[in-house]
Write a structure and sequence with these properties.
With about 170 residues, the chain is of the alpha+beta class. The chain contains three helices and six strands. The protein has one domain. The mean pLDDT is about 80.
Length: about 170
């Protein structure tokens, strides 16, 4: 019996490999989509944190000239305005990278950009806190997988002098 198969095919087995191939292909594509979208989410979070950190530094570096002339060091009240250094930096970052990055008007009950003074172990410190939201779209933008905003909040402190570590 040379030409005969060892086990004849049963009628219920026809096409079962094709069904498993379709199911496996769908599962692999779904997992691949989640991996790519997860990577985009992590990348958006990193970009938001980078933009927020740089915007906070820009706001903290905006010294109030009027206060400085009276001998006081303070962050300018316009540091967080729409035309201020923080908003300008985020707008230029968004334009340069092609992303949709903005400073929201408020985030969890706090302003998207704020300046102030806090007391730490090093003494009184002027600070600027900025939140940036980066919008990104998933690979499959349907249903619950629509655009999402990834926020990041960073704070920068105003330092002056060579080795003081706190605002003068």
């Amino acid at each position: 019996m040379l030409g005969q198969l060892p086990h004849p095919a049963r009628p219920g087995d026809r096409g079962s490999v094709a069904v498993w191939t379709v199911i496996f292909t769908f599962a692999v594509l779904l997992l691949l989509t989640f991996v790519v979208d997860g990577g985009q989410l992590m990348n958006a979070k990193e970009r938001a944190a980078d933009a927020a950190e740089q915007a906070a530094r820009a706001a903290a570096n905006d010294i109030d000239i009027t206060s400085l002339r009276t001998g006081q060091v303070a962050i300018s009240p316009q540091a967080c305005d729409s035309g201020g250094p923080a908003a300008s930096l985020v707008a230029s970052y968004a334009k340069g990278t092609g992303l949709n990055a903005v400073i929201p008007p408020s985030y969890h009950g706090q302003p998207g950009c704020q300046t102030g003074i806090t007391v730490t172990g090093a003494g009184r410190q002027h600070f600027a806190t900025v939140t940036v939201e980066v919008s990104t779209a998933p690979v499959i933008p349907i249903g619950i997988f629509g655009n999402y905003q990834v926020p990041a909040t960073e704070t920068a402190f105003l330092d002056c002098g060579v080795n003081q570590g706190v605002a003068c």
